Amino acid sequence: MEKGKYAFIIFSDPEIKSELVKAAHALHYALGLKEKGNEVIVYFEGLGEKILTLEPDYIKPVLNKAIKEGLIYGVCGYCASPPHLNIADKLRQKGYNLIGNENDHKDISEFIEKGYNVILV
């Protein structure tokens, strides 16, 4: 069977339990796809970026595994910037790749152009 390319875009707000559960499942699915030989990346966007600064206990084990496996492509620098979530410095300190900035909001076309199947969570 031919392997695929998948980009998980996580928007889920970790302060809402049902949203946090969705994000955790997305990370589990991403890891499963990678284990089966697929090319997989995870990108955090919007309120989903707060997962990386709060690191709620519920998601921490699967998030750490995704980080260890190199699945975290980056985070939206526009959403992390001071006019928005204002967590850019925290994310940089943790070593995350910020893509774009407060004047440059990237969109998912980058992933589509690179041949990824985009999955929004």
Radius of gyration: 14 Å
- In DSSP terms, counting alpha (H) and pi (I) runs of 4 or more, how many helices? 6
The CATH architecture classification is 3-Layer(aba) Sandwich
How far is it from the N-terminal to the C-terminal residue, by CA?
A: 26 Å
Strand order of the largest sheet: 4-3-2-1-5
Number of strands: 5
Total domain modules: 1
- List the helices and strands in order: EHEHHEHHEHE
Overall mean pLDDT stands at 95
What is the SS-derived class? alpha/beta
Determine the CATH topology.
Answer: Hypothetical Protein Ychn, Chain: A
Give the class-level CATH name: Alpha Beta
| Overall outline | globular
CATH superfamily: DsrEFH-like
Proportion of residues in β-strands: 15-25%
**Helical residue percent?**
25-40%
Low-confidence stretches: none
Largest sheet: 5 strands, parallel
Describe this structure in words.
This is DsrE family protein. It comes from Saccharolobus caldissimus. With 121 residues, the protein is α/β, with parallel strands linked by helices. The chain is 40% helix and 19% strand. It has one domain (5-120): DsrEFH-like (Hypothetical Protein Ychn, Chain: A, 3-Layer(aba) Sandwich), CATH 3.40.1260. Helix 1 runs parallel beside helix 3. It has a five-stranded parallel sheet.
Please outline what is shown here.
This protein has 121 residues and is α/β, with parallel strands linked by helices. The chain contains 6 helices and 5 strands; from the N terminus they run E-H-E-H-H-E-H-H-E-H-E. Helix 1 packs parallel to helix 3 (60-68).
